[in-house]
Amino acid sequence: MTEQPLSQRVTAPASVAEPRHPDVATWRSPTADDVDAIHALIVAADTVDHPTWATPRDEIEDLFDAAHIDPARDLRVGFDGDGRAIALGVVMIHPSRDVHVNTYLMGRVHPDVRGLGIGRDVLRWEHESALSRLASMDASVPAGIFVYIDEVDTAGRRLAERRGFALERWFSSMVRDLALEAPSIDVPDGIDVVAFERRWSESTRLARNDAFRDHWGSLETPADRWTKMIEGPHHRDDLSFVAVDGDRVVALALGSVNEDDWEMQGYSSVYIELIGVVRDHRGMRLAPAVITALLRAARDAGLDKAVLDVDTESPTGANSLYGRLGFEATERAMALVARV
């Protein structure tokens, strides 16, 4: 059945009031000059919410560079009387909107001022802003507003549920000691597992989009967003591997390194950004083949551990595969969704 246009089925407030709270001196839309202040806020929150990894500064810069984000419309920052950023509201609609419209709310509150009700009004502003934007769209596709919350953030979960968000999914971080020997995996004749090179970039993007088409909450990665990731400061060609069938990439495991994580973790690590196999090549052991190639390269590079995140209900049984390869679950995060 065809969905009604979002403009007809989404109820939004007539106007969205700006965030307000007596303990916040100033709220405003940020500019690129505020990147360091926002990053300091998020790093402070990271140490409490997920103390084993840090948000890179370039992810904050991306809020001001991405074509699908308008900082004046989609971002709000709250400052205390000393000019310190203590609250952040972010509303981001995924740029791929032809089959589903996914909107993400990514607010943060500094640990020093939690428990005062600031987060409640940040979420209120984000949620109402998201509804307002969706109500202005004529797309006749399913839509959802997503909030990702770390398992330890029970207060954040309560706030989201009070606004009508429902828990739909759990995601688990998993860690593997690279001192463990990585098994050798045989692949079918005609398929080669090779280190990623930029000449494979577009074919790898297409493979990623095909592989994730049946994954919960996943939408296609557009070419510009893909290029930004591959050419970003953390991606590592030498810690990324693809399985190639002729001139087509059919499986991928892409690694990145953020050395800011290492002090928090207490060890050096590679983060496995993406693992996927195109649907017509599943069942050939290509996922473990590209993963183990990455693990061996990371060990040879002198790194201590490999880290990844996985949907605990992945349709491919990925979490079971990673367990068999020696990964162990650590932290968890929740995905809460308001369907519209």
Topology:
Elements (H helix, E strand, L loop, with lengths): L5 H4 L16 E3 L6 H15 L7 H9 L5 H4 E5 L5 E9 L7 E5 L2 E2 L8 H18 L7 E8 L3 H9 L3 E12 L13 E5 L5 H11 L11 H8 L4 E11 L2 E9 L3 H6 L3 E9 L8 H15 L4 E7 L6 H7 L3 E12 L1
Parallel strand pairs: 4-6, 11-12
Antiparallel strand pairs: 1-2, 2-3, 3-4, 3-5, 6-13, 7-12, 7-13, 8-9, 9-10, 10-11
Organism: Microbacterium awajiense
Pfam family, one: Acetyltransf_1
Keywords: Acyltransferase, Transferase
Would you mind describing this structure in some detail?
- The chain has helices at residues 6-9, 35-49, 57-65, 71-74, 118-135, 154-162, 201-211, 223-230, 260-265, 286-300, 318-324, and strands spanning 26-28, 75-79, 85-93, 101-105, 108-109, 143-150, 166-177, 191-195, 235-245, 248-256, 269-277, 305-311, 328-339.
- 31% of the residues lie in helices and 29% in strands.
- The two termini are 15 Å apart.
- Strands 1, 2, 3, 4, 5, 6, 7, 8, 9, 10, 11, 12 and 13 form a 13-stranded mixed beta sheet that branches.
- It is built from 11 helices and 13 strands.
- A hairpin with a 5-residue loop joins β2 and β3 (85-93).
- The protein has 2 domains: 6-164, Aminopeptidase, CATH 3.40.630; 173-332, Aminopeptidase, CATH 3.40.630.
- The model has no long low-confidence stretch (mean pLDDT 96).
- The protein has 340 residues and is an alpha+beta fold.
